[in-house]
Known about the structure:
Blueprint: H1 7-15, H2 44-55, E1 64-71, E2 77-81, H3 93-105, E3 112-118, E4 121-125, H4 134-146, E5 151-158, H5 173-177, E6 193-199, E7 208-211, H6 214-217, E8 221-224, E9 227-229, E10 236-241, E11 247-255, E12 261-266, H7 270-284, E13 288-295, E14 302-310, H8 314-323, H9 327-336, H10 349-364, E15 371-372, E16 384-385, H11 387-398, H12 403-409, E17 432-439, E18 442-449, E19 457-464, H13 470-485
Parallel strand pairs: 4-5, 5-13, 8-11, 9-11
Antiparallel strand pairs: 1-2, 1-19, 3-4, 3-14, 6-7, 6-12, 10-11, 15-16, 17-18, 18-19
Helix pairs in contact: 2-13, 3-8, 3-9, 3-10, 3-11, 4-7, 8-9, 8-12, 9-10
Amino acid sequence: MPKTISSSLLILFLGLQVGINHQIAKAQTPTPVAPTTNPKTICPAQLGTAVDAIISRSEFSRARWGILVQNLGSTETLYNRDAQKYFIPASNTKVLTTAAALIQLGANYRIRTSVYRDRDGLRVVGRGDPSLTDAQLITLAKQLKQKGIKEIRQLIVDDSYFQGDIVNPSWQWEDLQSGDGIPINSLIVNQNSFSFIVSPQTSGKPLKLIWLNSDQKKQWQIINQSVTVEKNQPSFIKVTRDLQGSTLRIQGQLPEGSQSQFVNLPVFTPAEYFLQRFRRALAAEKITVRQASILDSSSENEIAELAVVQSPLLSELVMTANQNSNNFYTEALLRALAIKKPATKNQSTADAGIEVLKATLTQLGVEPTSYILADGSGLSRKNLITPQALVQTLQGMANSPQAKVFRASLPVAGVSGTLKNRLIDTSAAGIVQAKTGTLGGVVTLSGYVNAPNYNPVVFSMMVNQTEQPARVVRQAMDEILVMLAQLQRC
């Protein structure tokens, strides 16, 4: 039996996608950069001049900055730069989506995947659990075996719970090739991804491909244009595929003797992938399947639930979405919101989720005209959000019953998630909780600062249309965060 992918390893793979260069910074923690710090404390009245000095540097002459800083629990503004104007938010969109999911569904909500007996045999009903892996499929198979099932005359996998496109139509093609734009459907397994390893050989030879799923290997024609280079040479891997999805082209190089690297790619037909993996789990339990099919329209034939697995608590799903900036989890949470207002016949589940999201933001006190949403994760460049909308969301969540869970889901500077390697050894380390965001030309950061000698503050910083590397913009943002951490009453 081929080696399969564990849940924890898959999550790691998604963050280590090395094949696609476009937008990879969204899922990575950047190289640590020590911001220029001012050891002196700062009075609120001095903050405006100090921030202006940073964002008016020559390297930012072409960039658009949007910044809003307020005292937490108050509309008192400490700094405002174009806070009511639209910006492409990148993964700061996740702040809105995860906030709405917690408010509407609650921290203890779980997503069920069920197997029913119906008049035709057995039916597997998926409800978009982004955390489901081969391990949970094995659990389902064991439950069926315990019920005395040894043969399934007709196995139906029901992929009808989510309506509409499995990928957002505004996502870019290069996202769909990478671990960023993974299809979202009702029947999910292994984050709808497959992985393989590329390893160096002796200098001059192509890199060796090691497949973790032999079934996936059979589906691809491989064009391996990679090479092993001499020691101390740079490493890079690029994996692309054609529009038909039948050819993988491997390019790049790894030095001789260097570590192997993982490549994680989305599957094109996730329902078929689910069926394939579930049949393998059933076979491991010696359960025979005579016929199998995929259903993409709803059915009322279910008679009794024979087996079920549940996702971790929603609080844990939100943690993964925000800490790791996981697009896949966030898009699943957006669709889960539709349980509060199911999609109409001609509406996608994602659009129904956005309607619930908008209604929730209004309840939190967010101005309805301060944002335009096309997806839940921030991968779409059609999203437009103001710093004001993000600050209002953060303010509203701080006063909500889900405040503690929500804030715990945000990365902490110098400690966790996508902020783990930022602001280390500064006065902001450990006291900044914020969501990062990165696309080409876009860098964003929104969250809270628990200033020790001042009130807690809430902030949103958004930069668009910058030609600078993301690390340069991040360093400037970090300098501003250090100043916020050094605020005192004076």
